[in-house]
Specification:
Two copies of one chain form a homodimer. With 195 residues, chain A is of the alpha/beta class. In chain A, 39% of the residues lie in helices and 17% in strands. Chain A is built from eight helices and six strands, in the order βααββααβαβααβα. Chain A is globular, with a radius of gyration of 16 Å.
Chain lengths: 195, 195
């Protein structure tokens, strides 16, 4: 029996050039998040996926390790949320599934993680999570965020993961509006609406 | 700036041949789970990862769509849990991130999903989740399962996803013992123990 044995997540072709033009101070929390939020807007403009982006920053030397954008429709994989993409590419770049081995790895995301990405954060070994838009902002724009434990922030903090929320929240929420205004698909699983 | 832009999940080379030898009735719930639990044991014997396996079955025609095993250390990706691998390969095989479009897709897993995989289930579009070992069994073997909402089964059922637990639970838990007895690594993120 021959089944699929491989799947691939690949960043959009435009992203390398876009990133090359960024002049950012990756030691500055707001500048890091500003890059991530602008990347989420660029993902909408380029029509490569949902209005979400993320990045992994090494706080020991203020270095950008990886970026991610929502690639669910592009990759054909429901797990290809921006955070999963950024974490996986960081692990790929550093050659280790355990970012905790390096210390001080921070995950920036343009939106509070959904239930899946929340669960993925501790497994990745990052020591910090910084979020822009909130679950309420995403849900107000029509996105389903799933069921996280009510005390999700404390759960991460109890694992030694620092959590910052509402960093450039307004700017990130504005990207959701851009997405809706551009006719972007609110993809939710299930049968086709016309069924 | 040149960052990693691609990551790949690939099933171990031994898996195709192993699967070719299976003579299973994929219309039979216990036979499906038996295959999955034996696959988790084979993943331990072949030393390709943790003692976890999963499969996606199309209940409309009793067809095996994909399998997954834990590939965290093999792939170098913390998200490469058996369920994530099986769901992604099913989506790859069917050419759609939304398995809900096909109807009747079932996810079998040798262990109740961790917090990340729980969150991934609704996004995938499967209509049924069947689990063998429990969170308590995995934790008793030393694995960290993360924080799911207390009412995680009801949360899935409220989304129309049927949940069956403890199907061949003893058999699956026995594989955890095999893993420990074989000296298998209990990988948890964080600094190296010797640090």
């Amino acid at each position: 029996m021959q089944l699929a044995d491989t799947c691939v997540i690949r960043l959009p072709a435009w992203l390398g050039e876009w990133l090359g033009k960024q002049e950012r101070d990756y030691g500055d929390e707001r500048d890091c998040m500003s890059m991530v939020v602008e990347l989420s807007a660029e993902n909408v403009r380029r029509q490569s996926g949902g209005p979400f982006a993320a990045a992994v920053i090494d706080s020991k030397n203020d270095r950008l390790i990886s970026v991610g954008v929502n690639l669910v429709s592009e990759s054909g994989l429901s797990m290809a949320h921006a955070e999963m993409v950024a974490l996986s590419l960081a692990q790929n770049a550093l050659g280790d599934w355990n970012l905790g081995r390096f210390g001080g790895m921070q995950l920036y995301t343009s939106c509070e993680p959904c239930a899946m990405c929340f669960g993925a954060v501790p497994w990745s070994g990052v020591t910090s999570l910084k979020c822009a838009a909130s679950k309420a902002d995403a849900e107000a724009a029509g996105f389903d965020e799933g069921e996280k434990p009510a005390d999700w922030k404390q759960a991460l903090q109890a694992r030694g993961i620092d959590v910052v929320t509402s960093l450039l929240r307004e700017e990130a929420t504005e990207v959701f509006r851009l997405y809706r205004a551009s006719g972007g698909l609110i993809y939710n699983p299930g049968p086709d609406p016309e069924d």
